[in-house]
Automatic annotation (TrEMBL):
Residues 1-19 form the signal peptide. The lineage of its organism: Eukaryota, Fungi, Dikarya, Ascomycota, Pezizomycotina. Residues 175-398 form the Peptidase S8/S53 domain. Belongs to the peptidase S8 family. Pfam families: Inhibitor_I9 (PF05922), Peptidase_S8 (PF00082). It comes from Clonostachys chloroleuca. GO terms for molecular function: serine-type endopeptidase activity. This is Uncharacterized protein. One of its GO terms (biological process) is proteolysis.
Amino acid sequence: MYKHLVLGAGLLFASTALAAPVPQTKVASNGGYIVVLKDTVKNFESHIEWARSVHKRNLAKRDLDERTYSGIDFTYTGNNHFNGYAGHFDPDTVEEFRNSGDVDSMEEDQDWTIGTIDVPESEADEEEEEEELETRDITEQKNATWGLRSISHRQPGGDNYIYDENAGADTYAYVIDSGIRITHEEFEGRAEQAWTAYGDDHEDKIGHGTHCAATIGGKNYGVTKKTKLIGVKVFDQNSTTTSIIIEGIAWAFDDIIAKNRVGKAVLSMSLGGTYSPTMNRILKNAARHGIIPVAAAGNDAQDISKGSPSSAEGVITVGAIDSDWTVYEKSNFGKNLSLYAPGVMIESAGHTNDTSIVKKTGTSMACPHVAGLALYAMTVDGITGTDNVKKHLLKNATPDKIYGDLNGSPNLIANNGNSQQE
Ligand SMILES: *[C@@H]1O[C@H](CO)[C@@H](O)[C@H](O)[C@H]1NC(C)=O
Ligand SMILES: *[C@@H]1O[C@H](CO)[C@@H](O)[C@H](O)[C@H]1NC(C)=O
Ligand SMILES: *[C@@H]1O[C@H](CO)[C@@H](O)[C@H](O)[C@H]1NC(C)=O
Ligand SMILES: *[C@@H]1O[C@H](CO)[C@@H](O)[C@H](O)[C@H]1NC(C)=O
């Protein structure tokens, strides 16, 4: 019932600075449940009516508190994925649901927390000077971040970002995160606040989503500088639940299908937490529909099979390396990890104003590099289909250049495959 929780971005610090530990948060289940109905249940409404009546009857019988047991909080009603619902139910109701012939599976809902701390100004400045020294020679984007340089070169320390200018045109990155500050200069009007689980509150209050979105498609910090960025807000401040994340994924899934964006869309999920069969199920299903799900490996230094979405079939799961191409010590790992990308001291857009820039560390920062590269593969190389895009990314990746203990993960660094690199 009490599950170990996750975090998107860990603490940021220069490698020489005193290393504060990444906050590890333990949280209780919030008393909620996620209920998945069998595909054979044709009349969703009548099941919901039945579920509501069971809940009502059991509350009355035991004189239970409606604030603790709120009943169905929201439903999942996609044509493309499972039908079901999330809510808070008393033990008798839970038991009746389990025994219902309509119910395929149930899981306890969990609270999630993102821990993000920006690199303090002083440390960020120090690093800046070093970067400027390194980036004197210019070819394409001369002042690119070390992350962009690393995904376009076969050796660490490359001095520019080599990329195709049209990368990302007519594509969509669904950023399942804390929201996006769409007015930030990095986005040039290409970002949209499309969906939120919090009424009409789309605001990114912690900067995690804005930072990741700009790494995918920002004009300076982005991998694919023409893509559209679709904000799907599933975190308010730093917290959310499994059921809410699944709701955001379900919305994005349906939106991609409804707008004929299969073949030109990715789901970028810089998040990780307790293993969730329901989350894995919907992502596997999305991948089967040709939607590309990309996920952070997580920052718990454990096997990716222990968490979600990192363990979902069909997902491209991304670990993190630093600028020396050494594996990030907190990065999750495993045989099924897909590849690594830059994730330590990554500079990108901040959320406090339209020009702010911050550095963050974590596999959360590695994931958007690969989400951008998936869109790059679709637009520059004409690759479509989840398996094909994944194969293409693995084929283009730089092999055997990561230092450190990979714990059985493949030694591959994401790369855009440009022909000019050495
Ligand atoms: C989450 O945000 C709250 C409120 O801003 C803060 O008190 C708490 O320390 C944060 N937790 C983590 C893990 O960052
Ligand atoms: C790169 O240079 C351009 C033009 O000088 C500037 O607008 C931009 O902010 C710089 N980008 C980075 C990542 O420093
Ligand atoms: C890797 O993924 C496959 C397919 O999803 C699964 O069967 C296998 O158990 C996974 N291996 C590990 C080590 O998690
Ligand atoms: C924007 O925010 C940054 C901190 O990220 C700050 O240093 C800068 O002064 C702010 N700029 C404006 C115009 O408020």
